[in-house]
Write a structure and sequence with these properties.
The chain is built from 14 helices and 5 strands. It is mostly helical. The strands form 2 sheets. Strands 1-2-5 form a 3-stranded antiparallel β-sheet, with no helix packed on it. Strand 1 and strand 2 form a beta hairpin. Helix 2 runs antiparallel to helix 3, helix 6 crosses helix 10 and helix 7 packs antiparallel against helix 9. It is globular and about 70 Å long.
Length: about 325
Amino acid sequence: MAADVLQGRYVNPNAGTETVRQYAEAWAAQQPWRGTTRSRVTATLRRHVYPAFGSRQLRTVRRSDVQAWVTHLAQTHKPSTVGTYYRVLAAVFAAAADDRKIAESPCRRIKFPRDSAAQSALVPLTVAEVVRLAEAVQDRYRALIVASAGLGLRQGEACGLTVDRVDFLRRTVRIDRQLVTPEGKNARADFGPLKTAASNRVLELPEVVGRALARHLAEHEPGPGGLIFTSAAGEPIKRSLWAIEFRKAATAVGIDATPHDLRHHAASLLIASGCSVVAVQTFLGHKNAHETLNTYSHLWPSDSEQRRAAIDAAWSANADTNLTQDSAN
C-alpha cells in the first residue's frame, strides 16, 4: 500500500461507490464537446450504457460484464455500431481510473464480433440520380440537394448556409460554421464550429449551384440569421427532419441513399475529372489526405498503363543494351 501511494497507484478501498450513471453524467458535463457530439454521447449513455450498468457501482463492474454487454449488442447491431457504443463506455471507465475511483478499467481485452459481410466499395450517385432526388423533394428543399451535391457539403454545413456566406459576384461560398440542431422537443438550433479546423474553406460556386440558390432565394425568404434553407414553418432544418424528407424522396424514386451520399457524389465528380487527392481533400474539408484516400481511393483511375509505359520508355531510350531490342528469332 505504501508503494502504491508513492507511485500514485493507490485507490481508497471506499472509492468507486457511486453508480456508473452518477459518475458518467458528471464526467459528460465536464467535457468540452460540440453540441452534436454531446447529443450523440448522451444518447448512447441513455439508451445503451445506463440500462446495462447505470445502477451498478463503478467498482463492481468487471471485464466479463463488459464482454457480455458487447456480445449482447452484437446480436442486434452492426460491428461498427457496437464499437461506437463501447468507446463511450470505455471513456467513462478510463476517466474513473484516472480519478482513482477504480484501480483499473474493466474495458480491457474485450473481443469484438467480426463483420462477416464483405465491405463493398462506395458507389457514388450519378448526376441523373441526383436530379431525380431533387425533383422528388418538396420545392423548398430542391436547392438544398443541388447545393449539397455541387459543393460537397456536410449536412450541418448545408443546412447552416446563410446568405452572407454566398458571394454571387465573385462566385465563392465561405464555409466557416455549421448548424447545430440537438434533438429534443425544446432543443434550440444554433451555429457552431465545423468538424475540424481543416473544414474551414472557401469554395468556388458552380454555375448550376448559383442558379439553384438564386431561384430558391427569389421564392423563399431567408430564415433566422439569414439561413438560406428552412423548414415549411420557417425554422432551421433539424437533422431528423431532413433525414425524413430525403428518405421520402429516395423511396419515391427507388434510390437507396442518404443525404451524405450527396457529398460522395461531389467527390466522385472531382476524381473523374482528374483532380488530385489534395484537391479533393481541400474541397471536402478533410483533416488529411489519408481520410480522403480511405474513402475514395477506389474511384481514382488505375495507373497501371501509365506505370508500364514509364518503365518501357526509360528502357527503350537506353541504346547501350540489347535487352530493349526485339529478338532476332
